[in-house]
Amino acid sequence: MNNYCIIMAGGIGSRFWPLSKDNYPKQFLDILGTGKSFIRSTYERFSPVIPDANFLVVTNAAYKHLVLEYLPMLKPDQVLCEPARRNTAPCIAYACYRIQSQCSDANIVVTPADHLVTNELEFQRIIRLGFDFLGQNPQALMTIGIKPSRPETGYGYIQVESLSRDNVIPVLRFKEKPDYETAVKFVADGHYFWNSGIFLWTLKGIMNAFKRDLPDMVKLFDEGRDIFGTPEEQDFINKKFLDCQNISIDYGIMEKSPDTYTIPADFGWSDIGTWGSLFTHAKKDAHGNALRGKVVSVDNQNTIINIEEGTEAVVEGLEDYLVAFRDHSLLVCRLHDEQQIKVWIEGLK
Amino acid sequence: MNNYCIIMAGGIGSRFWPLSKDNYPKQFLDILGTGKSFIRSTYERFSPVIPDANFLVVTNAAYKHLVLEYLPMLKPDQVLCEPARRNTAPCIAYACYRIQSQCSDANIVVTPADHLVTNELEFQRIIRLGFDFLGQNPQALMTIGIKPSRPETGYGYIQVESLSRDNVIPVLRFKEKPDYETAVKFVADGHYFWNSGIFLWTLKGIMNAFKRDLPDMVKLFDEGRDIFGTPEEQDFINKKFLDCQNISIDYGIMEKSPDTYTIPADFGWSDIGTWGSLFTHAKKDAHGNALRGKVVSVDNQNTIINIEEGTEAVVEGLEDYLVAFRDHSLLVCRLHDEQQIKVWIEGLK
Q1: What is the pTM of this model?
Q2: Interface of A with B in 147-206 (CB under 8 A)
Q3: ipTM surpassing 0.90
């Protein structure tokens, strides 16, 4: 099998404080109470189409032990450690150079580690469709486009010219996160999809794109071309990675490329990027509360209460609130003020 | 010195859950943030008038190590262990039999372990006044009466016939906790005082009262008369204490006795029996919040936030609430619903 999967797992997920923290980011949590961490669910979602030996997880060195704890089927050298965060383009370039040292005609799917997919069979059908397309179109750079269900302003959009059911469609252009009015138009128009951040391409296709669009980055990694996959790789990365341009794969390559395609998909996707989206997907009690942990809930409505194992809580008299406790940290706030969390926690430092 | 102090420290203080729990009751906490636990403050308040060797603490065996941790100047045999809670009369009887084995002409002051006194000098003046009075009136049974500052319905009251400044006054009668209208009348009348639960008497005086009013209890303790103060005492207590009538010293003796007196006092007293009374005595920020611990408070008003050392909290958007975390347990509730706490925590069991 030439199919590879790169799982990007370097995020710190500060939006879910205190559930996620620097020392335990969102990808390792089971925020939804499914019984599995996000990274484990991500692995299992790809497992039917990717052999275990062909997974690569890119993360921070501090999280390597957590990755191996949640994915014990991986060998330690399948966990690539970035010495610092440099956005998605350098992360993907590093993993592609490693794959190049093992398999020059690989197909690659790239995925974030912390998203939700509820229909895994449909998901796998879409991924297989993408790999099939790459067989005839090895230069294609593909993204999974999600059919939008609401005028979401938190995602980038992909515009296509014409629709064709269950097919791979050329991208007309990528659109940055829109304002609300624009998002309403996008959804009504029908030619726009959410950019899921899941990419498919051949190794040759993406390497050509890096050479064309990010030549400085290629020059940098090419210096170590012969040491990827050897014991010297980590030292090389530790020295050179910091010199990489901090740029996303979307800005760095996808938006510039003439060969981009999208596969419109509808497999129950969410990036669970906010407490609000968690609330949307969580099970609720009769009063609309999403409860997690040993909780006595009295006279609450539309409130998230999420406390870690080994703790207990009595919570009374809240409406549209968020109560979360993990790792010695407590958050009580109005749900609609959650975008302030990052600001407030600065006050604790 | 013949002055003895009995500190009653057997309570479990479930009203302050989760700060106080079975495994760590209120008397060992520093709820007000003074830097000292209630039991330590109690000891220090009496220390100028009672020699260290003359303190006795009556508590549950489970708390003996905590008592000695907070009062390391006491010897282990100064901590008397009840095998079960039997209210204040058996507790005081036990301690009096122990004192009888050491000093037959003792003066005794009895105090709860978990009250607040802000004017310690005035407190000591009152206690000395009481001991002086006992010198001429060895049969007197005295309580400290607190000048009421509000129509409190949570305390018992003491009625006197006539007032005399800074003197010991005969009690007309004891009044159980009144309803609000009655409490308003008591305060307006001026002849009523709060019953503080602090008692003074001679050993001979209280032993006579026990014989007269609780003869069954006396009979029970008399069986072990010769083994108080010996290594066999604990075994005897473990066997016999459970047979004692469960009765308070107020009902069992004080209300029946012809020789009761009160010393009206005003030394900044509170039993800190509720979160509301804690709130009254706590320091507040500019928005009326009583904050304790590493807390970022955003847009809160008249709210208690009390979290244990080693934890941190961000709390936003609450008014008249109580947020407390200790020992893996969280409470968030409306302050005026605090009397329900005991009911709610049943749901955690």
Answers
A1: 0.81
A2: none
A3: no
